[in-house]
Amino acid sequence: MNQSLNDKKYAPIGVFDSGVGGLTVAREIMRQLSLERIVYFGDTARVPYGSKSKETILRYSRQIIHFLESKGVKAIVVACNTASAYALEELRPEMRIPIIGVVKPGAKVAAQVTRNGKIGVIGTEGTIASQIYTEMIQRHNPHAIVVGKACPLFVPLVEEGWLKDPITIEVAKRYLASFQETGIDTLILGCTHYPLLRSVVRDIMGEGVELVNPAYETAQGLKRLLEECGIANDGAQPEGAPMYQFYVSDAAEKFKSFANSILPCEIKEAQLIQIEE
């Protein structure tokens, strides 16, 4: 194996999201790929992405990818459903390193685990409007019926830390009521914030509905991708290289506090950068 490829093994994974939601993906990578280093960027100044146009999301994503590439990452995870839906396929041909989104892994698993072919998806307005989950699910299961529901209030409720608050439960009941008559047996948590509401959703939907967490499936997909490309870390770490680095475009302290409430390790610092410069 040549030296440059060998060096690449020890480079970090770039992970980005519109804010803190992608930390659920980072958390799964930490758990499942514990040898891999991570550089995370949360676009906290411009969150949410779910209500923005495709052109805007493409522009933001290009800026962030450029930043992550400047940090020497060996692969990039688009840990944002909206950016995965609107930007990933256009960005892929521009990339010199592997890139993976969160939509395809979750869609594939949902198509495999459904028993009656009726699948629900909850996500941001952008993700639901893009119909990306329907398209990806039907690639694996052409006869599947996919029912989408935008749940825009979930993101601010999660970011406020109101994971089991009575208000959150009430909002969730209203959003999920429309699924009760559809007969779905599988529900995709189609926004990276939503796994943090998993227990609330589980209580409302009941044990008969399989919940698919794309964050978990994305980490699995990343593992396979790194192995296929021959760039999975085998355990050695460059001397003095930080295991995890976190960057944000705004509200660093709030980000750090949220990250420390959900990640398996303590974050000492989230560095503020001007992403548009």
How is this structure best described in words?
This protein is of the alpha/beta class and 277 residues long. It folds into 2 domains: 3-101 and 216-272, 3-Layer(aba) Sandwich (Rossmann fold), CATH 3.40.50; 103-214, Rossmann fold (3-Layer(aba) Sandwich), CATH 3.40.50. Helix content is 44%, strand content 16%. It has 13 helices and 10 strands. The chain has helices spanning 3-8, 23-32, 54-70, 81-86, 88-91, 103-113, 125-130, 132-140, 154-159, 166-177, 198-205, 214-228, 252-262, and strands spanning 13-17, 38-42, 75-78, 99-101, 118-123, 145-150, 186-189, 210-212, 244-248, 271-272. It has a 6-stranded parallel β-sheet, with helices on both faces. Strands 6-5-7-8 form a 4-stranded parallel β-sheet. Helix 11 (198-205) links the parallel strand 7 (186-189) and strand 8.
Order of helices and strands: HEHEHEHHEHEHHEHHEHEHEHE
The share of residues in extended strands comes to: 15-25%
State the share of residues found in helices, binned by percent: 40-55%
For the record, the count of structural domains works out to 2
Helix-strand makeup class: alpha/beta
- How many H/I helices? 13
Instruction: Please identify the top-level CATH class of the largest domain.
Output: Alpha Beta
What is the overall silhouette? globular
Mean pLDDT: 93
Question: How would you briefly describe this protein structure?
Answer:
By secondary structure, the protein is α/β, with parallel strands linked by helices.
